[in-house]
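This is your field. Please look over both lines of this record.
***
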Amino acid sequence: MRVMGVDPGLTRCGLSVVDSGPGRKVVPVAVTVVRTPLESDLALRLMAVADAAEAWMERHQPEAVAIERVFAQHNVSTAMGTAQAGGVIAVAAARRGIKVVFHTPSEVKAAVTGNGSADKAQVTAMVTRILGLDAPPKPADAADALALAICHSWRAPLIDRMAAAQAQAEEVKRRYEARLAQQRKVVRP
Protein backbone atom coordinates (compact mmCIF):
# COMPACT_ATOMS: atom_id res chain seq x y z
CA MET A 1 0.00 0.00 0.00
CA ARG A 2 1.24 3.49 -0.78
CA VAL A 3 0.58 6.01 2.01
CA MET A 4 1.09 9.76 2.06
CA GLY A 5 1.84 11.03 5.57
CA VAL A 6 1.09 14.65 6.43
CA ASP A 7 2.32 16.64 9.40
CA PRO A 8 0.09 19.68 8.80
CA GLY A 9 1.19 23.22 9.41
CA LEU A 10 1.07 26.65 7.85
CA THR A 11 4.69 27.64 8.35
CA ARG A 12 6.07 24.13 7.75
CA CYS A 13 3.97 21.24 6.44
CA GLY A 14 5.66 17.84 6.25
CA LEU A 15 4.72 15.58 3.35
CA SER A 16 5.94 12.02 2.91
CA VAL A 17 5.18 8.93 0.88
CA VAL A 18 6.01 5.35 1.83
CA ASP A 19 5.26 1.96 0.37
CA SER A 20 4.36 -0.82 2.75
CA GLY A 21 4.66 -4.50 2.09
CA PRO A 22 4.06 -7.77 3.87
CA GLY A 23 4.48 -7.72 7.63
CA ARG A 24 5.84 -4.43 8.83
CA LYS A 25 8.06 -3.66 5.84
CA VAL A 26 7.97 0.04 4.96
CA VAL A 27 10.06 1.68 2.25
CA PRO A 28 10.47 5.45 1.95
CA VAL A 29 9.53 6.95 -1.42
CA ALA A 30 9.82 10.70 -0.84
CA VAL A 31 9.70 13.36 1.85
CA THR A 32 9.63 17.15 1.83
CA VAL A 33 8.58 20.13 3.89
CA VAL A 34 6.40 22.83 2.35
CA ARG A 35 7.09 26.29 3.75
CA THR A 36 4.92 29.37 3.53
CA PRO A 37 5.95 32.91 4.50
CA LEU A 38 4.48 34.31 7.71
CA GLU A 39 3.76 37.66 6.08
CA SER A 40 1.53 36.15 3.35
CA ASP A 41 -2.25 36.22 3.53
CA LEU A 42 -3.77 33.18 5.26
CA ALA A 43 -5.77 32.16 2.18
CA LEU A 44 -2.65 32.29 0.00
CA ARG A 45 -0.70 30.21 2.50
CA LEU A 46 -3.45 27.59 2.62
CA MET A 47 -3.57 27.55 -1.16
CA ALA A 48 0.20 27.01 -1.33
CA VAL A 49 -0.06 24.06 1.08
CA ALA A 50 -3.00 22.61 -0.86
CA ASP A 51 -1.23 23.05 -4.20
CA ALA A 52 1.90 21.31 -2.94
CA ALA A 53 -0.12 18.43 -1.47
CA GLU A 54 -2.12 18.06 -4.69
CA ALA A 55 1.09 17.95 -6.74
CA TRP A 56 2.39 15.18 -4.43
CA MET A 57 -0.85 13.23 -4.75
CA GLU A 58 -0.66 13.54 -8.52
CA ARG A 59 3.00 12.54 -8.65
CA HIS A 60 2.96 9.71 -6.10
CA GLN A 61 -0.61 8.34 -6.38
CA PRO A 62 -1.14 7.34 -2.72
CA GLU A 63 -3.92 4.93 -1.78
CA ALA A 64 -4.39 6.67 1.57
CA VAL A 65 -3.48 10.00 3.14
CA ALA A 66 -2.68 9.92 6.87
CA ILE A 67 -2.96 13.32 8.54
CA GLU A 68 -2.09 14.21 12.11
CA ARG A 69 -5.25 15.01 14.06
CA VAL A 70 -5.00 18.32 15.85
CA PHE A 71 -6.75 18.19 19.19
CA ALA A 72 -4.94 20.66 21.45
CA GLN A 73 -2.04 23.04 21.39
CA HIS A 74 -0.99 25.80 23.74
CA ASN A 75 -1.19 28.47 21.04
CA VAL A 76 -4.74 28.74 19.64
CA SER A 77 -3.67 30.47 16.43
CA THR A 78 -1.09 27.74 15.77
CA ALA A 79 -3.72 25.07 16.37
CA MET A 80 -6.11 26.83 13.99
CA GLY A 81 -3.50 27.09 11.25
CA THR A 82 -2.51 23.46 11.70
CA ALA A 83 -6.12 22.31 11.53
CA GLN A 84 -6.78 24.48 8.47
CA ALA A 85 -3.72 23.09 6.66
CA GLY A 86 -4.82 19.53 7.46
CA GLY A 87 -8.32 20.38 6.27
CA VAL A 88 -7.30 21.66 2.84
CA ILE A 89 -5.15 18.56 2.33
CA ALA A 90 -8.02 16.27 3.39
CA VAL A 91 -10.32 18.00 0.90
CA ALA A 92 -7.74 17.66 -1.88
CA ALA A 93 -7.43 13.93 -1.18
CA ALA A 94 -11.19 13.42 -0.92
CA ARG A 95 -11.69 15.12 -4.29
CA ARG A 96 -9.39 12.51 -5.80
CA GLY A 97 -11.18 9.65 -4.10
CA ILE A 98 -8.20 8.94 -1.84
CA LYS A 99 -8.99 7.58 1.61
CA VAL A 100 -8.20 10.10 4.36
CA VAL A 101 -7.38 8.92 7.88
CA PHE A 102 -6.54 11.05 10.90
CA HIS A 103 -4.19 9.77 13.62
CA THR A 104 -3.52 11.45 16.95
CA PRO A 105 0.07 12.25 17.91
CA SER A 106 -0.05 9.61 20.67
CA GLU A 107 -1.25 6.94 18.19
CA VAL A 108 1.65 7.79 15.89
CA LYS A 109 4.20 7.78 18.72
CA ALA A 110 2.87 4.47 20.06
CA ALA A 111 2.94 2.85 16.61
CA VAL A 112 6.46 4.00 15.77
CA THR A 113 8.19 3.85 19.18
CA GLY A 114 5.93 1.69 21.33
CA ASN A 115 5.42 4.67 23.66
CA GLY A 116 2.53 7.11 23.15
CA SER A 117 4.44 9.73 25.15
CA ALA A 118 7.69 9.52 23.18
CA ASP A 119 9.49 12.77 22.44
CA LYS A 120 10.44 14.04 18.98
CA ALA A 121 13.99 12.70 19.25
CA GLN A 122 12.71 9.18 19.94
CA VAL A 123 10.25 9.37 17.03
CA THR A 124 12.95 10.62 14.68
CA ALA A 125 15.37 7.91 15.81
CA MET A 126 12.80 5.17 15.23
CA VAL A 127 11.73 6.55 11.84
CA THR A 128 15.40 6.55 10.82
CA ARG A 129 15.81 2.97 12.01
CA ILE A 130 12.52 1.61 10.60
CA LEU A 131 13.18 3.09 7.17
CA GLY A 132 16.89 2.22 7.19
CA LEU A 133 17.89 5.83 6.51
CA ASP A 134 21.54 6.90 6.61
CA ALA A 135 20.66 10.09 8.49
CA PRO A 136 17.66 11.33 10.47
CA PRO A 137 15.11 13.23 8.36
CA LYS A 138 15.26 16.97 8.93
CA PRO A 139 13.49 19.11 9.93
CA ALA A 140 11.29 17.41 12.51
CA ASP A 141 8.24 17.99 10.29
CA ALA A 142 9.73 15.60 7.72
CA ALA A 143 10.30 12.93 10.36
CA ASP A 144 6.77 13.45 11.71
CA ALA A 145 5.27 13.08 8.21
CA LEU A 146 7.18 9.83 7.74
CA ALA A 147 6.03 8.64 11.17
CA LEU A 148 2.41 9.28 10.18
CA ALA A 149 2.83 7.27 6.98
CA ILE A 150 4.48 4.41 8.90
CA CYS A 151 1.76 4.49 11.55
CA HIS A 152 -1.00 4.22 8.98
CA SER A 153 0.82 1.52 7.02
CA TRP A 154 0.94 -0.59 10.17
CA ARG A 155 -2.51 0.28 11.52
CA ALA A 156 -4.47 0.11 8.24
CA PRO A 157 -4.87 -3.68 8.16
CA LEU A 158 -6.28 -3.66 11.70
CA ILE A 159 -8.52 -0.68 10.96
CA ASP A 160 -9.84 -2.46 7.85
CA ARG A 161 -10.47 -5.71 9.76
CA MET A 162 -12.29 -3.81 12.51
CA ALA A 163 -14.47 -2.00 9.94
CA ALA A 164 -15.29 -5.31 8.23
CA ALA A 165 -16.17 -6.90 11.58
CA GLN A 166 -18.38 -3.92 12.46
CA ALA A 167 -20.16 -4.13 9.10
CA GLN A 168 -20.67 -7.87 9.55
CA ALA A 169 -22.06 -7.35 13.08
CA GLU A 170 -24.47 -4.70 11.79
CA GLU A 171 -25.65 -7.05 9.03
CA VAL A 172 -26.22 -9.88 11.54
CA LYS A 173 -28.16 -7.47 13.76
CA ARG A 174 -30.26 -6.27 10.79
CA ARG A 175 -31.14 -9.86 9.83
CA TYR A 176 -31.96 -10.76 13.43
CA GLU A 177 -34.25 -7.76 13.82
CA ALA A 178 -35.95 -8.54 10.50
CA ARG A 179 -36.51 -12.15 11.61
CA LEU A 180 -37.97 -10.94 14.94
CA ALA A 181 -40.27 -8.53 13.13
CA GLN A 182 -41.42 -11.34 10.85
CA GLN A 183 -42.09 -13.62 13.85
CA ARG A 184 -44.13 -10.90 15.56
CA LYS A 185 -46.33 -10.64 12.44
CA VAL A 186 -46.92 -14.41 12.52
CA VAL A 187 -47.81 -14.44 16.25
CA ARG A 188 -50.37 -11.61 16.01
CA PRO A 189 -53.90 -12.69 15.06
Notes: The chain is about 55% helix and 20% strand.
